[in-house]
Prior knowledge:
The complex is a heterodimer of chains A (about 180) and B (about 300).
Chain A: E1 20-22, E2 28-31, E3 37-43, E4 47-53, E5 58-64, H1 73-78, H2 84-97, E6 106-111, H3 124-138, E7 143-148, E8 154-159, E9 165-169, E10 172-175
Parallel strand pairs in A: 1-3, 6-7
Antiparallel strand pairs in A: 2-5, 3-8, 4-5, 4-6, 8-9, 9-10
Chain B: H1 3-11, H2 19-29, H3 35-43, H4 48-56, H5 70-77, H6 79-96, H7 106-126, H8 133-142, H9 147-154, H10 159-168, H11 172-180, H12 184-194, H13 199-206, H14 219-233, H15 249-255, H16 261-279, H17 284-292
Helix pairs in contact in B: 2-3, 2-6, 3-5, 4-6, 5-6, 6-8, 7-8, 7-14, 7-16, 7-17, 8-13, 8-14, 10-11, 12-13, 13-14, 14-15
Amino acid sequence: MSPTLTRPAPTIRRPAKGKLLIVDISGIVVARDPEAVIVTYSLGSCVGLTLYDATAGIAGMAHMMLPLSKTSPAKAEAKPGMFVDTGVATLLRTMLSQGARKQNLVAKVAGAGSPLGNEKVFKIGQRNYTILRKLLWKNDILIESEQVGGQAPRSLFIEVATGRTHIKSRGEESEL
Amino acid sequence: MSRRDEILELVNDVPKLPAVVARIQNLLQDPGVEFVALAREIEMEPGMTGNVLQMANSAFFGRSREIHSIRQAVTVLGTHRILQMVVSQVAAPIVRDAEVGYGMSPAALWRHSICVALAAEKVAEASSLACEPDKAYTAGLLHDVGKIVLGTFVDLDDAPVHDLVRREELSFETAERRLFGIDHAEISALVLERWQLPAEIVAAVGNHHQPARADESMNLIDIVHVADMLCMNAGLGLGSDGLSYRLDIDAVRRVDLAPGVAELILSEVAAAIEEMEDMFGTQQEDRNDVVQNTAH
C-alpha cells in the first residue's frame, strides 16, 4: 500500500490573462465564461457575496460597503453595489436575467470584519452581515458557507467553471 | 544602532517638500495676505497651475461656477483651500512612487490617504467639535506618510509584526512599537516636522491611532482618528495590517456624529475616489494594482 500523502488544499488555478475579473469596492460582476475567475480584494467590514448556479454555469460577486441605500439614494442609483440592499437585489436580478434560477443559487459570504473595540459604535460590519442574511433569507437563498468577522483583511475568489470559492487572508488560502 | 535609530535615519531620506509650500504657508500666516501674492507663488511653479485648476474645478472641491485662473480660485475657494490643493499635489508623487510595506502598493496607500483626507474633512464639518475642515483634510492626507519609511524597513520581513499581532491580539501600532521602538504614526509626525508643517497637524498625525496618548487633547486628533478608522472599516485602502487597530470610544463620543452620518460620509468618500485618483494621475493599471496588491 502506498503511503498516504498529505495533499495541500486545492488552490484556485491562475486564470489566463484577461480572465481575472476584479470587483472593486461597490462593484458587481456576473460571468459565465468558464475560464474566468472573479475576485475581490481587501474586504474589511464590507461584505463580499458570491452566488453560483451550477446548472446554468453562472457566477456572480458583489463587494458591498454599507448596509442600507437609504443612507444616500442618489449614490445607490449610481452604484447599487455600494449598499447591501441594492447590491443584493442588483446581483440577483442580473443573474436571473442571464438564465440563473433562484432555486439553484448557492450563496457564500466573506468579510463583515471590525476593528478592535469597534463593537459598540459604527458596527458597520455587523450591520452589513445582518442585512445580507435577512435579504438572502427573504429570497429563500441559504448561505452555504461563510467567513465573517475579525480583523484580518480578506480576498474572495470564485471560479466560474466550478463555483469553487476561496478566501485569501494574510497569505493563507482556504476553501470557503 | 537600535532599530528605532535605524528608522530615524531613514526619515532623513524622505524628499523635502518643494519650497513653494513653505512660501505659501508663510504668506498664510499673515491674515491680510494679498490674494494676488498668493496666486503668483503658484503661477510660478511649472505644472502646479494646471493641477490646482483641475482640483478647483472638481466636483469635490469645486463650486458651481467654472474657475479659469489661479487668482479666481484663490478668491472663490479661499486661501486655505489653495494650500490644501498645493499640499495634495506635492505629496502625491512622494507617496505614489514610494516603497510601502505591509503588502500594500503605493497606489493603495495613496488611495487610503485620499480617502482619509476626504473623510476627515467631512467629519470635521459634521462634528460639533471646533476644527477647520481644511486642516483635517491635510492631516488626513498625510497621516500614514510614515509607512513609506517603515515600508522600506519592514518590507524585507513583516512576519514578526503579524505574529505578535495575532499572538497577543495587539493593535498594529503597539506591535510596531514593541518590535521597532517606534510606530508608523510617530514616523509620520517626524516626516511632517521635516516638511515644516504646522505643529497641530504634526501632533494629530503622530497620535492618530491613540488619541489618549497625546500630551494634550486636540479636536484634530479625534477627527483624524475617527476618519481613519471609518476608512479602514470600509476597506478603503487596506494593507495586510487590515483592521488590527483599536477604536478609541472616547474620541468617537467627542466627535459625536449623528446616527447615519458616518455611513453617509463613507458613501460620499467612496463616490469621490475615482475623480480624485484621476486628478492625481492614478492610471488604470495602478488602480488594478491598488486592489490586487492589497490581496493578502
